[in-house]
Amino acid sequence: VKEIDLVSHDTTWYGRDRGVRDGLARLLQRLAGVPGLAWIRFLYGYPGEISPALLEAMAHPRICRYFDIPFQHADPGVLRRMGRGGDAGRALRLIERIRTRLPEAVLRTSLIVGFPGEGKRAFRALRRFVEEARFDHLGVFAYSSEAGTAAGRRPDTVSAEEKEERRREIMAVQSGISRARNLARRGRTVEVLVEGLDASSPGVWIGRGRFQAPEVDGIIRFSLPPGAAEPPSALVRVEINVAGDYDLGGSLVP
Questions:
Q1: Which of 72, 87, 198, 201 is most deeply packed, by most CB within 10 A?
Q2: String of b and e for 112-134 (b: at least 16 CB within 10 Å)?
């Protein structure tokens, strides 16, 4: 095993049920000492729980400096109706703190468009937030009502067509940001965890970098040197020479 991913509804709350403060930071530090582990990653941490102790723990070379923070929205009114606090300014300040402490930090978020009461002004605030935050990875979901929830009792004020249009607009903004970030990686050599052969391209292998979580982010396709039948190990070095909106391509570095 080369990679361990810690996942829960709110991983940053680890240890709270036992009264442990900064439990996730302590867990990461202990995992970093396990022989053989190369990458340790946690997913899904709420904005208010990204503490100085957690940032300090994530400076360890075995821990992926990857933050999956579900901001959900940027407009304070929409966030209040979601039962969440905060606003764009608070979120941007957190992002700045993370990137200042860990310049190589990678940020992913998930957003919801079309939540009841999301007017055009609120949506514009969300778009500005995405443009300013410049996330490495981002997912957008159109709101759908669920019975038994507080939001489900609100009138659905945004049509299905408008929700989809807003979702596409945010993804178009993010596509440009993602492509620019990937273009900046061309010419660099990155560590890649090999996942197997590309079923659609004979002779091409697939893997991920530290900046890519499994199943939700892009992949790295790479070729082997002439005469090589397979990668020499589970972790290899790949020089990036192809950059798409989400995926990368390159060649194995001997």
A1: 72
A2: bbbbbbbeeebbebbbebbeebb
SS3 at position 221:
strand
Q: Which CATH number fits domain 3-183: 3.40.50.150, 3.80.30.20, 3.30.2000.10, 3.40.50.1370?
A: 3.80.30.20
pTM across the whole model: 0.91
Cβ-Cβ contacts under 8 Å for 8 (sequence gap 6 or more): 14, 44
- Residue-wise pLDDT tens digits, 173-192: 999 999 999 999 999 999 99
| Amino acid found at 13 | W
The structure tokens 């798409």 sit at: 244
Q: What is the CB neighbour count within 10 angstroms for residue 236? A: 19
CA 216, CA 124: separation in Å to the nearest integer? 26
